Amino acid sequence: MSKNEEVIIIGGGVIGCAAAYYLAKQGVSVLVLEERMIGHGGSSRNGGGVRQSARDIRELPIAMYGIKNLWPTLSEELGVDVEYHQDGNLRLAKTEKHIDILQNLVDNSRKSGLEVTMISGGQARELCPYMSEEVIAASWCPTDGHANPMLTTLAYYRKARMMGVHFITGEKVVKLKKAKGRIRKVLTQSGNVYEADTVILAAGFPSRAIANTVGIDIPMFKELNECLVTEMQPPMFWQMLGTAEADFYGHQTKHGSFVFGGSSGMEYYYRNQADFAHETSITPASVCRGIMKYFPALSGAKIIRNWAGWIDVCADRVPVIGRVEEVPGLILACGFSGHGFGIAPAVGQILMEIVLEKPVCVDISPLKYNRFHAKA
Amino acid sequence: MSRLLDRNREIGAFVPQQDDDLIICRCEEITKGEIRRAVHEGMWTLTEVKRFLRAGMGLCQGQTCGRLVKGIVAKELGVRPSELEDTTARCPTRPVEMQVFGNEVHGHE
Amino acid sequence: MKQAEEAGVEVHLNSVVMGIFDLGEITVQHGDGVCHYKGDSILIATGACENMVPFDGWTLPGVMGAGAAQTMMNLHGVQPGSRVLMVGSGNVGLVVSFQLLQAGVEVAAVIDAAPQIGGYGVHAAKLARIGVPFYLSHTIVKAEGTDHVTGAVIAQVDESFRPIAGTEKHLDVDTVCIAVGLSPMSQLARMAGCEMTEKGGAVPVVDEYGQTSIPGLFVAGDVGGIEEASSAMIGGRIAGAAAARRSGYLPEEEFREKASALKASLGQLHEGMFSPKNKGRRDLTVTDEGYHLSKTLLHHGYLSEEEVAGFPGAAPGKSAGIHPVIECTQNIPCNPCQDACRFGCIRVGDHMTALPAVAENARCVGCGMCVASCPGQAIFLVNDEEEAGTATVTLPYEFLPVPEKGTKGVALGRDGSVVCPAEVVEAKTAGFMDGTVLLTMRVPSEMSMKARFFKTGEGTK
Lengths: 376, 109, 461
Description:
Number of strands of chain C: 26
Strand order of the largest sheet of chain B: 2-3
Distance between the termini of chain B: 35 Å
Low-confidence stretches of chain C: none
Radius of gyration of chain B: 17 Å
Helix content of chain B: 25-40%
Oligomer: heterotrimer
Shape of chain B: elongated
Shape of chain C: globular
Distance between the termini of chain C: 42 Å
Strand content of chain B: 5-15%
Low-confidence stretches of chain B: none
Largest interface: A-B, 45 and 34 residues
């Protein structure tokens, strides 16, 4: 079916496609195996945030690297407009408690060198005049932004394919096999067997079951993420929005539509855990009410779609990236916990650097797969 | 379950046609040529075409263009339209104002 | 709807079901709010939406679906335009074309890329006798205009349905109606996660009672596969009975009896020339009874006089005295004419797709009930007034204004051409005729089997 490529990437999402692209750029032959279709998982089901602010300090350097070096020229490099806007991120506070949360996040981020500050409600409204009086303060990170996750993923895929990366979709990986102490075989549900000395596992939540087949576990659970999309509106503002309690986020897209996400609070208890993520009957309405409190001007905007997706939430809310000692040749990149999109280009480059044993642009040791321990 | 698609399969080169500037997705003003070109750039499922071009993402959510896009993509790939997986149907079935959507009234059992 | 409300059903109009969720839950937009409902059983009967065919200029104002034109006229009382090109000759295209004429809109032509008319011959005949031309093996290549339709260009197509250069014809129209088929509006079924299959669009896989792969979720009507109104209603009754059984309101025995009877009626509708199993067939040459199918009817929308005489509805050898002439020559599931005549003059038989026949010993009294009852407007009363050298022809008339007794005009033949002068003898109607007028015109006796429509004045087109 396919000549033996040097690297097999399991997962055709933005992480897998970005890694494939950066590897192809270095002349490495790559095969990407995707269970459904390109970008069908979290890559097409996120809020499009490209941010540094409010990130865990273990992944903050990756985010800063990507925004500084990769995002600004990505559209040009890939030949597709990925709609990257660097117009800042406003994380909103309605209560004193929120302000405390934000202050804490701001202080932590500043330690890592990120330019982010607390601003007043009035200052926030100067930046975004549509915001209601409910907002009493906000954190403001001017170098944050947003992009189009579907286009970014497909742009990486398109370019990688043009450069010779072999993609096979509709191929569900069910098992990994070692040979002579190293990773060797990738087996699929259709009965095909692929072989390589290097395998990158970037398949979102399903990565766990796949890793289990070679004795490795990644402590994750899956959580429903729901968003709603409005019809196009005249251009109103370009900042990426979030809240102190991370219960609501969104932005206006180049198209003019607004994409907003939020939670119902019941996510841990949802009955339906099937592969297909179904929107619920309660969350979108709740998100609407939240949006209208912050942006009354959008009350008349028509919702044309809800969608949902699964977030692969890692135990400590940051991803697992890096080589697996027990399985030489296996590299993990999963558990992005709902904030993988913004760091995807940087992670793609990092994965390439790991494969080629080059110096990694950012220290990823805090994200190693075997960091999980019982409390002392 | 998706059909296995080897994206290296040869589907032939993109050949410009006379009606390439015919609008197919009226809501988002996507032309036949854009759809055909997207297939040749690797978009082999209706969902990938939709995400790449916005065809089917407008107000009518593909009700008008869906069948047409399916036919065009199938032709470019050399398959029957019925072999292509439909895009996902989602709530709401018709556009609803935010203030209406968020106004939950007690219903009946 | 009235029956349902009388039975205690809570009916909410202007209520859009926005989504369907786990465990039998739906959200519904009522006015300015959203309600949640839960059902032990849910029946999706959302029907179908119109297909489109793109062509140069199809986004101009004035290009619309035939169904949209029908809604505009029947619901909103608005004329969609003043002169229409109808693209598509299935029943939707034929029926809407007639309704356009009734609304005072001109129909320049009905075209179809297929080599024969897709809908019932009787519906086509209603248009042909008014002079509407049919262009088969033709497609629209362009709608002209800059900010609205000002004309259309059609062209003949080859076997691969590609336009043949040099065959272009220009039509003066300001409206183009598209009637190229329907697709099931199955979004809710897909949203619910039903196992789907392909049947003219995505439809749920169902059991014999319309239940999908999700227990308690049913479909009925076009959303389960495009057919027509009668089968939709029966399908709805079957699903309703199954839902009642599911909730314990209908005992098993009673349910099976009911379902059986309903399925038998449904079976009747699935017979005949236009049955689902014959869809798209172009090779039929005879009716079930062995009569030759009229080619001019299939290609031009009208029968020839000789063809009419050969069918059992034409009452051959009955030129003396008033008698019905039934110009129904294809096997379609329809039989109101049989029950309309109290004197047993018309017989269809147990199979409603059988061709209607006028009984040998028919004692026709000329009441006109059959004329009024035929949904295809295919029945005429002919009375030879031998001594006077004239004959009267009674036809179903569904236009306004209704010509008054004594009005002079012309009679049109089946192909819409003027055949002779004519004078209105009578124009009568009754409540149960649902608006249809029985128009009787006097024509020269040799025209009695030719004259099939009346036009006031000179009848110039």
